[in-house]
Amino acid sequence: MIKGIGHIALKVEDMERSLHFYCDVLQFTKAFEIHDDQDNPWIVYVKAGPGQFIELFYGGKNKPETTENQIGVDHLCLEVTSIEEIASHLKNNDIKLDVEPKKAKDSNYQCWAKDPDGNRIEFMQIMQDSPQSQWYE
Questions:
Q1: Tens digits of residue pLDDT in 115-132
Q2: CB-based burial, 120-137: b 16+ in 10 Å, e otherwise
Q3: Distance (Å, rounded) from C-alpha 111 to C-alpha 106?
Q4: For residue 126, what are the CA distances in angstroms to 33, 44, 53, 79, 100?
């Protein structure tokens, strides 16, 4: 039946700025684009892992003033091999960390930043003693 999560879809205000962040800074790959029925750019797919994508939709305009207690998507979590390495890489690319690397209550290490549209991104290093590690196949 269900195999897994295929993608997260985000509306973006400035596609080039978003592609720079996701492809140049985070080093994901721009996979392909889809155009609408009038052949206008509509969606850009960014490959985040095997069978995993971030869909970037053109046309984002209305950014909420705050996301506190907002219903809906809270954040995107990206698994990393080294929390210190990703934190350093983000800072070296002028990406401000909202939360510096730290150990979370689930025993994993995390740091936090935002994409160009203000979407919160958690970077997580899974540790062997975490509850998540028990579910890896």
A1: 999 999 999 999 999 999
A2: bbbbbbbeeebeeeeeee
A3: 14
A4: 32, 29, 20, 7, 16
